[in-house]
## 1
Amino acid sequence: MARILHVLDHSLPLHSGYTFRTRAILKAQTGAGWEVRGITGVRQYQHGQEPAMQAEEAEGLHFFRTPQRVSGPPGLREWREIRALEQRIIDVHR
């Protein structure tokens, strides 16, 4: 069985063209019998919010969250976002 992990900026339950397109792809892959998961970076929860859990289901799809706040000046902040997502991918893989 194929196992796929989609690395995403953000996902459901947020609504945007990006999340709706991602939903369609994940649903099609699930329908093909593949095991599909998504993982989102820290931008999933902006404006001081933090995820209530490190994994979440939305519309029958499974997502891992990166529950870490990052800060700093432009450039450094984005680098920290990438590092946080990198570490979360490693954790999920284990």
Note: The radius of gyration is 14 Å.
## 2
Amino acid sequence: MKRFCALLLILMLTLPLLPAALADTPNPIPVLADDEIPDTPSGIHHYMLICIDSWDAQLKDQWVSQTGIWANHTDGLILLTVDEFSHRVMLTSFIRDMLIMRPDGKYGRINNFLDKDGWAYANKKNEYEGLQALVDTINSHFGLRIEKYIVVDFRQVENIINAVGGVDINITDREAHYLKNYPISAASTTPAIAAGGTYHFTGHAAVIYMRIRKVHTAEYLHADGKVYYDTQDYGRTYRDRLVLSSIADSLKDISEEDAMKLLDVIVANTVYTNMSTDDFLSALDLAMEMRGSPVEHIRMPIEGTYEEFPYAGMATKQIDFLANREALQAFIMDSFVVVDDE
């Protein structure tokens, strides 16, 4: 009887802990095997743009010798897709705290592949494993076949924006208030920021704008057909897409000679890429062909398909990959268009 009572007491004390323990278990993630991923249709080209969370990824010796892995997060993840037949240019951004299934079968955050504590750092089988593992993971989670990627840091983004002559950005009153209180030069925008409105941003100011998290964005049309604003990291992804769209718009009349000069700047301001010279020249030909095409964009995850999920001491978001995979395929393949309302 005493033994029974002791077991009953232990069970009663343990039961309240069970929901918390179960809450630490993420939902299964439906990862696609390579033979389940459809081939990329003819005429569609994917380029993964990866930005390291650093102003000087190489200058500060954050490159880990003989491994090709940086002790940084990959906080900027944007897929550039070009459909040369329908003349569409598409941007897909992926939030940095998305919970994914790593190639080693464990859960992790999508931006940790180049982190010193991440999966890639612990598996030094080849020089650029972390980058390829990141791209492979995006492919297996979203049903894509991305092959080409480019890695940059904040300073290099600044240099590239300066090379195109800066960008025009329409900001809200709240964004103006934030930027006025940030330590950037008043001369870094034209005119100097006073209130909401359209300003011409230099590279450094544009990067600072792209990094804003504490102020929500202007309202814009989302993939669910509703108009509202983004906050926190969702706001960052929107601002990233907005700046890239502004760059594309500023280049709609660029000459082939100036385009070649800009390509040289991009190549010089790249931490690493697996693109060859021929790949870059082919991409340049595509860019010239697409001049003036409106830039469409989408964010992964779309609204209503994610939830906050603390996991292993990390702040992550658990998303419905089936719904987002379907939305992304519709966006890329079926002319599912998302455009700014500004």
Note: Residues 7-22, 59-69, 117-128, 336-342 have pLDDT under 50 and may be disordered.
## 3
Amino acid sequence: MLASFESALGRFRTNLEAGRGYSAHTVKGYVTDLVDLVDFLEVQGIPSPTEIDLEALRAWLYTLSERGMAKSSMARKTASVRSFTAWLFEQGELASDPGLRLRTPKANQSLPKVATREAMAEIFQVLEVAASEGQPTAIRDLLVVELLYATGARVSELAGLNLSDIDENRRLIRVVGKGNKQRMIPYGVPAESALKDWLDRGRPTLVSPKTSFELLINSQGKRLGTRQIYEVVAKALAGTAIGAAGPHALRHTAATHLLDGGADLRAVQELLGHASLGTTQIYTHVSIERLKEGYTSAHPRA
């Protein structure tokens, strides 16, 4: 990579990490997308970020399309590039921002996978039986699924929970979401019971010299990672109609079941930590689809 591009990407990375407070995972995604762009620009004979123009960006998107890249991936890469060119313009390294006129490919939006209430009841029945046998990891796995379903938290938010983030008296957890934004989320009585069991019988058994203040820990006494949480959820959902989906499926399920039960859309937005109400509205479409399915199967003149 040419030194001018390497310098610009390094400074942009610092801006994402320090200036915007993005997570390491998000920053890595941005940089990966931009390295792909830079590789293309260098082949095209563009030696510096100051020479990026709309024509070059469109040519890059065209090559991605020719490779057969999914529209959702192209949309993500476009968003990364637009953020980069906007920053270059703010830094005075571009006379104008070509990213403003770069059209984002529209992804084929599909409705999120959602487990039924009956499926969730069966999952909890299985997990509760396993936890009742006293195995610490089984007690923890029940808590993992309870909290994800009760709060709609992101997997990274759950993994990052510390003991001090739990307000047991008010049944609230404090999570750190995107952009280091904190929010408080309530949880219900079943999750409260699972939490108490974990703190009384599960966690003390797994504590080791490596353990400090983490809420969820693995068999080595270290913080439970997002990949391990994914495995727990995938195993729990494997027997349902949606299959071995990850933790985000429980977030979708929690949001949809809340709206099905009459929750206010803005309250669900606050719960999920969505910056835009439009992001939350996808779940209203899920609820409407479920309503249609119920109507079609139950109404005599449907």
Note: The radius of gyration is 23 Å.
